[in-house]
Amino acid sequence: MLLVCDFTVPDADSAEFSAQASRATELLTAQPGCVRAVIGRSADEPEKWAMTVEFTSVVAYRRAMSPFDVREHVIPFLSRGDAAAYEIFATATDGKAEQQVSVVAADAAIAGPRDASGPATPRG
């Protein structure tokens, strides 16, 4: 699971934002199942920032968002930007890509809450 959040931060607010971003990454990476968190700033547009956080699973992502200190600090921080969670499709290291098996059902777009027992057929 990959959390991606884009932020637009005026230069005057960058020091405060950077401190809040660091605190958010510390809190998230302290949670079980959080692999890593990265904060970046655009080299071309200094007011553009991005944060990515990788989790081992959807369950790890949801559990990481549950502790009180995360809800108190991270959720409000993320609400400053445009956040989205993504299923990881593939990873690559040392020139070799490995495709991941989807955990989302092929009919996820039309399935209702009573159908949510897990994907019988993962989407491709």
From TrEMBL:
Keywords: Monooxygenase, Oxidoreductase. Residues 6-63 form the ABM domain. InterPro entries: ABM_dom, Dimeric_a/b-barrel. GO terms for molecular function: monooxygenase activity. The keyword Oxidoreductase applies. It comes from the Bacteria. This is Antibiotic biosynthesis monooxygenase.
